[in-house]
Specification:
The chain is about 5% helix and about 40% strand. The chain is mainly β and about 425 residues long. Strands 1, 2, 3, 4, 5, 9, 12, 14, 18 and 19 form a ten-stranded mixed sheet that branches. Strands 11-10-13-6-15 form a five-stranded antiparallel sheet, with no helix packed on it. The radius of gyration is 22 Å and the shape is globular.
Length: about 425
């Protein structure tokens, strides 16, 4: 794979995400400031290291689909140097990013519920960028803090925490920096609609210069898998100011613009799978975390973004029949590399239709006779097969495709 290095030299002590109570951390005080965001210019494609903290044993089943994707950023391009921005852990400062998922309803005057789950999470992937030519260890803790989504309101105590130590390799010259993708297990954590993901460096476990390593900043495009706008802010606090205690909670000291490169796998109360087994590998969806880095093992590596968007993006139509006149809502989402997606639905939703961008073909998932599941840990699941003219995805419609259509004649999406 272009630009990817399997990096296994990781010293870690991982505490899985479990229910723990820690100091409250919350949304920032009023005011918007730019705080030491650093941008590096790529003179060649940077090396990408993958770190998987889930351990050697991998479950046999497919991973959960994505429920949150904030992964767009300035990319390397052969036509010229692109900039990559990051926010460092300089001075041991604590950094947080807010997440707002699909689903859930606001409580009048109080924002979103901090206790009602709209999804469950199984893993979080985030990206570090290092410009340190020496390297060293980085101790890091991640916490999940429920939040009601209201500006200026305090977040609830942590409901999940993980701590680990990473060996950060020296950044090669050129290009003078490297990107590290880190996947952390979450163990089916119930997530409310809005929450904070807070990164706290452990000074006692860190030998690297913290000013030279930090979180990769996305460019503020998709904020979740519906491709709604990202919230556009992350937050920062330093040990010198910490989280200033105030009535009702505590606040961050700074409010820089941007969102971090971060993805969360998990489940809403419906998980759909589109059966694309008949397609050749080049026509199947790929992992959005791969094509973001122009990594396209099935085709021209320099066309990874275009190929990935063509294969992964789908339009969604949901029909609501709760009133006297049914109506349809439309938005866009991603398929993951296994053709899976997850959405929150209520029993007002009669059907969900998924339509591929590259050819307009569609499949429909209808409301079960007993209604949709309300359990994010045991969602309604369904699989539907999408029938293509170019059935095997080899780029041509020929006798092989005609035979497949002949044997499938009479079948429909209903």
């Amino acid at each position: 794979m272009k630009g990817f290095i399997l990096w296994c030299a990781v010293a870690l002590a991982t505490t899985a995400f479990v229910g723990v109570a820690t100091a409250q951390k919350s949304v920032p005080s009023a005011g918007l400031t730019e705080v030491e965001v650093r941008t590096v210019q790529a003179t060649q494609a940077p090396p990408i290291y993958r770190v998987d903290l889930r351990g050697d044993f991998q479950p046999a089943q497919d991973p959960d689909p994505y429920i949150y994707l904030q992964t767009m950023f300035a990319r390397w391009n052969d036509a010229g140097a692109y900039g990559f921005s990051f926010f460092s852990f300089s001075g041991g400062r604590i950094i947080g990013d807010d997440v707002v998922l699909l689903g859930g309803a606001p409580d009048p005057g109080t924002g979103y519920s901090t206790t009602t789950p709209v999804a469950s999470a199984s893993e979080i992937t985030f990206a570090l960028l290092t410009v340190d030519g020496v390297g060293g260890t980085l101790g890091l803790q991640i916490d999940i803090h429920p939040w009601n989504g209201l500006f200026g309101s305090a977040a609830a105590p942590s409901i999940g925490s993980a701590a680990f130590t990473l060996n950060i390799p020296p950044a090669p010259t050129p290009p003078g920096f490297a990107i590290i993708l880190i996947t952390v297990p979450v163990q089916n954590l119930a997530l409310p609609k809005a929450f904070w993901v807070v990164f706290t460096p452990d000074l006692s476990q860190s030998t690297i210069n913290l000013a030279n390593v930090g979180l990769l900043i996305a460019n503020g495009t998709p904020g979740n898998v519906s491709m709604l706008p990202g919230r556009g802010y992350f937050r920062v606090a330093t040990p010198s100011t910490a989280f200033t205690e105030v009535t009702g909670g505590s606040v961050f000291a700074g409010l820089p613009q941007g969102s971090f490169y971060m993805a969360i796998r998990g489940k809403h109360n419906f998980v759909g799978t589109i059966d694309l087994a008949a397609l050749s590998a080049r026509a199947k969806p790929s992992d959005p975390l791969a094509f973001e880095f122009d990594d396209d093992p099935q085709g021209d590596p320099d066309e990874g973004i275009e190929e990935g968007l063509r294969r992964n993006l789908v339009d969604v139509e949901v029909v609501n029949d709760s009133g006297t006149i049914p109506f349809t809502s439309r938005f866009t989402t991603y398929l993951d590399e296994n053709g899976r997606f997850s959405l929150p639905v209520t029993n007002a939703i009669a059907s969900i239709t998924i339509r591929r961008w590259d050819n307009g073909l569609k499949v429909t998932f209808n409301r079960p006779a007993g209604g949709w599941s309300t359990d994010v840990f045991n969602p309604t699941t369904a699989t539907a097969q999408m029938i293509f003219g170019d059935v095997n995805g080899d780029g041509a419609i020929n006798d092989t495709d005609l035979l497949a259509v002949l044997f499938g004649f009479g079948n429909s999406e209903q």
